[in-house]
Amino acid sequence: MSSDKRAILYIVATPIGNYADFSPRAREVLAGADVIAAEDTRHSARLLQHMGISTPCVAYHEHNERTMCDKLVGQLLAGTSVALISDAGTPMISDPGYHLVRAAQEAGIPVSAIPGPSALVTALSVSGLPSDRFIFEGFLPSKSGTRRNRLQELAAETRTLIFYESPHRILDSLTDMATIFGAEREGVIARELTKTYETVRRAPLGELQQWVAADHEQQLGEIVVLIHGAPNRPVQEIDPESARILAILNAELPLKQAASLTAEITGLKKNALYKYGLGVGEKDE
Length: 285
Known about the structure:
The chain is α/β, with parallel strands linked by helices. It has eleven helices and ten strands.
């Protein structure tokens, strides 16, 4: 790269399966960069060879991220242009890269996105689930107890939930989802998107679990799981007597403690009482 050309860190999206989705701009940037930082150089070599790109590659993954981050920033400061890619899709969506982007920005190096495919957005677009508000949770914990606890925390989430899941855990995760969210909650399996055996199926979670259990093919490949958000629950009304008890207690106690005691006395939800107290300007010390 010529010395008068300013080094840039490019964040380049690559296909999630179908090479035809590779954009001309992405190819141009990867071919013109001085070095490509790839999550798995052997995996990315197939794409780069197919596209006729001969730019040198270095490995940048979760196990060497901190070390390589300093090295790549040093190269960028010296005038080397770097393009970051992941195994598939948009970098940093459940892939390494966050530390490099942050370090480059702090060093005054421009960071430029070359947008393209993303499995979570692709899955959402064909899911048939509400797409105006959603939450991406990445991969769930591998240990069953921790996974169930995390799902329990999300049980009341009203936005569409999106997860990535590995083939060897998909059945266990669907079983836990059906148990915690309810077998009738609507879900979607989006598997091998843009590839030959692409599968998208929307059904109640209990049905999806049985379908995947009965067909081993549905336990293979790259998998995105989407869950319909929980229904909005009406705000619990606070009757005059409960409001009076809360006010009396809050005159002597912090609001959280007053709400907790009022909940024990009245049987109302503590959170509803606390929110009510905040709304009427009760004392919260």
